[in-house]
Sequence to fold (287 residues):
Amino acid sequence: MIPQDTYTLLDFGNGKRLEQWGQFRLIRPDPAATGTPTNTALWKTADAIYQGEKGKGTWASLTPMPKEWPIAFKDLRLIVRLAPYKHTGVFPEQQENWNWARARARQGARPLAVLNLFAYTGGATVALAKDAHFVTHVDASKPAIAWAKDNAALNALPADRIRWILDDAPAFVAREQRRGKKYDAIILDPPAFGHSPTGKAWRVERDLAPLLEDCCQLLSYNPAFIILNGYAQHDTPESFHRLLTGILRAKTNFTNFKIDAKELRLNASNGRALSTGTVARCAFKSD
Fold:
């Protein structure tokens, strides 16, 4: 029996996912969902399907659907919506990062100042704010920040726990450098391609390394961690490990740290695994 308030990847193949989002089953396109589905009959039980390619399709409801509904990730509650561009506002594979960040933050036994860049609808923000850390949540999308605020309210977070910033991530980081601001932990979840509110294009192969260099200048004297996510085709655990290690050694005085880089995956209920991106997690150790 699948719990009715959580997420489950049921099956995937032929460029699509079949997913359980609380009480509803959705079909969405995913280029990484290669191979053949294992349970054809199960796909016929979907409540809604995204038809068309990303950015050019629409959601088709096969059964009556609410505007939104909550699902649970342990003690977190997040709002699911059938948003444009095939999204639901929640990335379940990030739960692994949320758990890691919360565990790492607890080791310091102090409230952390956390910078969450490209923070979208705030899964990581809510997770860390729930543990009494102070998060600066930065995203260039006004609807995404509004959604993140709804998630914060759903989890009854104090108003002073999160600072909401509608801005281009590189521009905000540059201003924080000029202000002399410092953070104990930094999360970067950049898209492979995007646009700032002013229309400036973001290209990860061109813009990520300079942004990461600037972020490292914002680290406090006793930082806890950095999390770097990636979704571009050329991203690999090896390239992320090399990038983060090289920047920390060249641009900072930190020497006592450990970086683990890996492929992020979602495990389906039928035992198969779906690749969802790359992550590098850097844990700093107190000298």
